[in-house]
Design a protein that fits this description.
Blueprint (H helix, E strand, L loop, with lengths): L5 E3 L2 E3 L3 E4 L6 H11 L3 E5 L24 E5 L6 H14 L5 E4 L12 H13 L3 E6 L3 H10 L3 E4 L13 H10 L5 E3 L5 H9 L4 E4 L1 H4 L4 H21 L23
Parallel strand pairs: 3-4, 3-10, 4-5, 6-7, 7-8, 9-10
Antiparallel strand pairs: 1-2
Length: 263
C-alpha cells in the first residue's frame, strides 16, 4: 500500500481524498476539517472564495497555503464555456501561473447537472492554453472518452447531483467509464457518507472529491476523519480483490474435514 499513490499531472499523492473549502462556518472549521481529511489536493471555487482578488477580505491562502497543499481552482457557478475559461485565466494569474485546474460548467442552477456541450468547448480552449484540466462531467462513458481525447488529465464523473448526498446511483456507468479511459477517474459530487466513498473506491475509482458531505455534517471534522478512513478502506478492498458473489452456493468458512463424529 505504501507505493499505491495517486498520480495527477506528474505528481504523486498519498491521499486519494480531495476536498473542497466551501460551506464551513468559519476558517477555523475549514482548517480542522481539511487536516482531519488528510487531503493533499484542495479545490477552491474562484467565484466564491477570496485568494487575493479581494485584498480587503481574509484570503483562503492564509490557512491553506500552496506550500502545504496542491490547490485546485474550480469554476463552480459557471454556466458557459466562456465564463469558465475566464475564471480559470484569473485563477492562473492570481496563483502565479498555476495550471492545474478543475473545470465544471453547469447546466442549470436547480440540478447543477453538467452541461457537457459547454464543458467540451471549455476543455478544448483550456488544454490549448496549457492548462492541466481535471473535469467534472456526467457519468456518460462516451463523453468521458471525448474529454480524455481532448487532453483532460482526469475525468470526474458525478455519483449523483451536487450536494444531494444520494450516493452512487449508477455504479454500472462508472464501471463502463473506467473501462474507456486511461486517465484517473475521480468521483465528484453526490457522496453523502463514508460508505458512499468506500463504494466508489471499491469499484476501482482512483479517488473521491467531496465538499458538502463533510461541511454539512453535524460534526464536519469527525466526518472528514471518517471519509479519510473510508477512502483508504475502499481502495485496499479493491486492491485485495473481493470474493465472488454466489447465489445459493453455501461455502463453510471453516474446514469440514476432521470434525467430531466424522471420519
Amino acid at each position: 500500500m505504501n507505493n499505491d499513490t495517486l498520480l495527477i499531472a506528474g505528481k504523486s499523492y498519498n491521499s486519494r481524498l480531495l476536498v473542497g473549502t466551501g460551506k464551513y462556518k468559519d476558517f477555523a472549521e475549514t482548517t480542522a476539517a481539511v487536516e482531519a481529511s488528510g487531503a493533499e489536493i484542495i479545490t477552491i471555487a474562484i467565484r466564491r472564495s477570496n485568494i487575493g482578488q479581494n485584498p480587503n477580505e481574509p484570503s483562503l491562502l492564509e490557512i491553506l497555503p500552496p506550500s502545504k497543499y496542491t490547490l485546485l481552482p474550480n469554476t463552480a457557478g459557471c454556466y458557459t464555456a466562456d465564463d469558465a475559461v475566464r475564471t480559470l485565466r484569473l485563477a492562473r494569474e492570481l496563483l502565479d501561473g498555476h495550471s492545474l485546474v478543475k473545470l465544471e460548467v453547469l447546466g442549470d442552477p436547480q440540478s447543477l447537472y453538467p452541461n457537457v456541450v459547454e464543458t467540451l468547448a471549455a476543455a478544448k480552449t483550456l488544454v490549448a492554453e496549457g492548462f492541466q484540466v481535471m473535469v467534472y462531467t456526467s457519468d456518460d462513458p462516451i463523453i468521458a472518452k471525448q474529454l480524455e481525447d481532448i487532453g483532460c488529465i482526469a475525468i470526474m464523473p458525478l455519483a449523483s447531483l451536487i450536494g444531494s448526498g444520494m450516493g452512487i446511483l449508477n455504479p454500472w456507468n462508472l464501471q463502463l467509464l473506467m473501462e474507456r479511459v486511461q486517465v484517473p477517474v475521480i468521483v465528484d459530487a453526490g457522496v453523502g457518507t463514508a460508505s458512499d466513498a468506500a463504494i466508489a473506491m471499491e469499484l476501482g475509482c482512483h479517488g473521491v472529491l467531496m465538499n458538502t458531505a463533510i461541511a454539512a455534517a453535524k460534526n464536519p471534522v469527525q466526518m472528514a476523519s471518517a471519509m479519510k478512513k473510508a477512502v483508504e478502506a475502499g481502495r485496499e478492498a479493491f486492491l485485495a480483490g473481493r470474493m465472488p458473489k454466489k447465489l445459493y452456493s453455501a461455502s463453510p468458512s471453516s474446514p469440514t474435514s476432521g470434525m467430531i463424529g466424522k471420519a
